[in-house]
Amino acid sequence: MEIESFSPIDDYFGYEGSYWTANLKFRFNSAFWTAVNYHHNYKKYVNRPVYQYDFDQQIWVIENDDYVILESNRIDFNNRIEISFGYSITRFLNKASNLEIVGSFAYRKNDSNDPYFDYDDKSVGLQLKYDLQW
């Protein structure tokens, strides 16, 4: 039996906790820079219990027409580190414009007492910025 109105999405639940971030940016010269950003947050969801999830069948476990609750509050510790490098070309094409190329790597880990939300993730990005000025 699946209950249609249930959603595990975080936006429906209140939480309390803390968030802090640390940033460091170093400019090698007028064109090349690197940056490191670290983010940490702690969330205790005040209206979100930990529901039992069957990962093999990919369903929420239901007994007696209700979801099985394992703990009264979901608690998350989330850490993210981002490392980026950028190269900027000023007066691109001899115009009053800038071209910047940025490469980045990010690692994110969420430790949760709810196994459904326990994960780690890596991403790589490449960004091209052009300030168009005529």
Secondary-structure content class: mainly beta
Q: What's the total helix number?
A: 0
Number of strands: 11
Distance between the termini: 63 Å
Rounded mean pLDDT is: 88
Can you tell me the residue ranges where pLDDT is under 50 for at least 5 consecutive residues?
none
Q: What is the secondary structure topology, with strand pairs?
A:
Layout: E1 15-27, E2 32-45, E3 50-51, E4 53-54, E5 59-60, E6 62-63, E7 66-67, E8 69-71, E9 75-90, E10 98-112, E11 119-131
Antiparallel strand pairs: 1-2, 2-9, 3-8, 4-5, 6-7, 9-10, 10-11
Can you give keywords for this protein?
134 residues, mainly beta, five-stranded antiparallel beta sheet, two-stranded antiparallel sheet, 11 strands, 63% strand, elongated
Descriptive notes:
It is elongated and about 75 Å long. A hairpin with a 4-residue loop joins strand 1 and strand 2 (32-45). With 134 residues, the protein is mainly β. It is 0% helix and 63% strand. Strands 1-2-9-10-11 form a five-stranded antiparallel β-sheet, with no helix packed on it. A two-stranded antiparallel sheet has the order 3-8. The chain has no helices and eleven strands.
Structure described in brief:
Helix content is 0%, strand content 63%. It has 134 residues and is mainly beta. A hairpin with a 7-residue loop joins strand 9 and strand 10.
